[in-house]
Amino acid sequence: MSRVFNFSAGPATLPVEVLEKAQKDLVDYKGTGMSVMEMSHRSSDYMAIFDAAIASLRKLMAVPDNYEVMFMHGGASSQFAMVPLNLFSKSKKADYIHTGEWSKKAIAEAKRYGKVNVVASSEDKTFSYIPKVTKDMFDPEADYVHITTNNTIYGTTFPSLPEVGNVPLVADMSSNILAQVYDVSKFGLIYAGAQKNIGPAGVAIVIVRKDLIGKAMDITPTMFNYKTHADNGSMFNTPPTYAIYIAGLVFDWLLERGGVAAMQKINEEKAGWLYDFLDNSSLFKATVEPASRSTMNVPFVTGSDELDATFIKEASAKGLKTLKGHRTVGGMRASIYNAMPQEGVKSLVAFMKEFELRNK
Ligand SMILES: Cc1ncc(COP(=O)(O)O)c(C=O)c1O
């Protein structure tokens, strides 16, 4: 078996232990004589897998009882529409903090259903920082406030949550869910696509305070109404069964390693190695201001497009894969989610050091 270090932003590297477990059970899941892929989603074997996955996620995030945890189709992008459709229940106004490509898409979608107020934006500096906000900037009558906790493309993370008073805080947590500890009770709703820190593409997670369910706009399609999924235990239609199974294995893997707090510590250590090197390098430079840096996605540049391209090519030849930055920003980006081993980051830093010496 030969595994590379895959720095892809998503779909992203998964724990090898999870892949091996899935491989072992691929054809005959625990003596059932069938693959999890072939099981009825209503069978007792599959329901056991499903219920365990929900329970593990609840445990990992210490989700309070007054929150629904749901698995859904449609990726995080469907949530850009589902959030306004379900939460525009009173003023039909929402406050958004604009921190990158994903918040831009979320804002565009919400504008189709109500009034969006962009409270703050970091577009002036290519989204290289998280704008400062204060409580008085938010509309107390807004139906919700929306943030993207971690901006996958630009490599920024909210250093702290905005103070929004009684207005529900909604978070797109696609690229740092389960990577750092969040107090779920501070949010009205959390959503995330799975393909970065959780499992394969095809499943999205929604954690929503129960009192926010059941107030959707009349035009909301049945499949876009949280109530549909809450009332049917995420089984109104066939859920993405295999993706949920793999997500469950990842949850168990996290629990075995001490849960989210333990992962956060490792993530800070891994990211620290990279940022320390970048801040002292004569060739490479981190693009994000220190206070807003992500532990998940680390963008960096040499300042020369040609050298960036050479670096990416040579790194790939060394088994350090998918380091090209997002097409909108260029340069490099190392995505170092929970499943990226410490060894992977150490190898990347060692190669960067060596590349720097050769290209001074
Ligand atoms: C922060 C963030 N939000 C939303 C998305 C879109 O997710 P999906 O492809 O699951 O719709 C992504 C990335 O893919 C992302 O990184």
Helix content: 25-40%
Question: What are the low-pLDDT stretches, counting only 5+ consecutive residues below 50?
Answer: none
Give the strand order, joined by hyphens, for the main sheet.
2-10-9-8-5-3-4
Q: With helices defined by DSSP (H or I, 4 residues minimum), what is the helix count?
A: 9
Bound molecules: pyridoxal-5'-phosphate
Write a structural description.
The chain is α/β, with parallel strands linked by helices. It has 2 domains: 17-256, Type I PLP-dependent aspartate aminotransferase-like (Major domain) (Aspartate Aminotransferase, domain 2), CATH 3.40.640.10; 259-358, Aspartate Aminotransferase, domain 1 (Alpha-Beta Complex), CATH 3.90.1150. The protein has 9 helices and 14 strands. It has helices spanning 16-24, 44-61, 75-87, 101-110, 226-231, 241-256, 259-280, 305-317, 342-358, and strands at 5-6, 67-72, 93-98, 115-121, 144-148, 150-151, 156-157, 169-172, 189-193, 204-209, 285-286, 297-301, 320-321, 332-335. Strands 2-10-9-8-5-3-4 form a 7-stranded mixed beta sheet, with helices on both faces. Helix 1 (16-24) crosses helix 6. The relative contact order is 0.16. Bound molecules: pyridoxal-5'-phosphate. Pyridoxal-5'-phosphate binds next to helix 3. Pyridoxal-5'-phosphate is lined by residues 10, 75-77, 102, 148, 152, 172, 174-175, 193.
Give the key terms.
alpha/beta, 2 domains, three-stranded antiparallel sheet, Aspartate Aminotransferase, domain 2, globular, 360 residues, Aspartate Aminotransferase, domain 1, seven-stranded mixed sheet, binds pyridoxal-5'-phosphate, 14 strands
